[in-house]
Amino acid sequence: xxxxxxxxxxxxxxxxxxxxxxxxxxxxxxxxxxxxxxxxxxxxxxxxxxxxxxxxxxxxxxxxxxxxxxxxxxxxxxxxxxxxxxxxxxxxxxxxxxxxxxxxxxxxxxxxxxxxxxxxxxxxxxxxxxxxxxxxxxxxxxxxxxxxxxxxxxxxxxxxxxxxxxxxxxxxxxxxxxxxxxxxxxxxxxxxxxxxxxxxxxxxxxxxxxxxxxxxxxxxxxxxxxxxxxxxxxxxxxxxxxxxxxxxxxxxxxxxxxxxxxxxxxxxxxxxxxxxxxxxxxxxxxxxxxxxxxxxxxxxxxxxxxxxxxxxxxxxxxxxxxxxxxxxxxxxxxxxxxxxxxxxxxxxxxxxxxxxxxxxxxxxxxxxxxxxxxxxxxxxxxxxxxxxxxxxxxxx
Length: 396
Description:
Distance between the termini: 62 Å
Structural class: alpha/beta
CATH class of the largest domain: Alpha Beta
Radius of gyration: 22 Å
Order of helices and strands: HHEHEHEHEHEEEHHHEHEHEEHEHH
């Protein structure tokens, strides 16, 4: 059975009514037959039938034992970090999502959890960064936003040998393309807001564990902290998952064409897309994933914030917005948006240049998206070449 067929038929028919759609159990509590005697549900923070169905589906998708659904991707990351204690250390990918960096640095470091950032594309760097206090290795692969790819299987072996947990943020690839738990990871996290939901209409986070006992620890932390996903958003996410494989397939096709266009454009300096044979980690990406995803980043030859601003404000179909993974194409300037919380020197060292632009390639026709990018390049070139009047000069 194909993964797409398995996913569609892992979404159950309601046994009470035969409803083909999972019901939304919009309730805060459940009537009990006697104290402690119930039908598996007592209070909606602890469990909810709609959320439980979603968690089961995502666990099956990632080939894990336990799935846990949270109110956001950062809430999911937060739950994983709560597995640690003061004095523990983390080895994390250097090109890390700005929100994760903010949580690691400004929240957990003050509780005595130290983070070592390293280029995880070389497994030797991970090995060398591990100390006796290291308890967690944190990967994004591909990374946000420069799309570096790390060898999950190799790093999983290092983690096991050194007694560390390996957590992989699988948001960019999604389980439609990559399954880190089958490559040796212990934990997978997702911003369900992105490809899993796929329609830019919800905020959600998921944690999936390979081990049942570890999953129960995460569920305990969810119940203790209360960062749950609502029944309605759980239902929206289930509905989005039904088309995951179909959507991701088209995202990949469109992104491949757009990447080739950008690679040949004279105004572009570098293109970051694992599907290009010129990508430094292309072979690893090809070996551990069945596709290269819908995210592309590129830098301009004019490597300035001003140039990035001009470009991201000149497109029509690519909408300027945070987030990614939806039906409609989006773009952003990471230096000013998603990665603004990272100190400039760390951001630049990780490859997030001032002119870096991140594209989330949607489901429009690739030809139309390429034309949109082309007209944006033409527009900013024309504005550069146009003489500035005295009035404009004074106004500026």
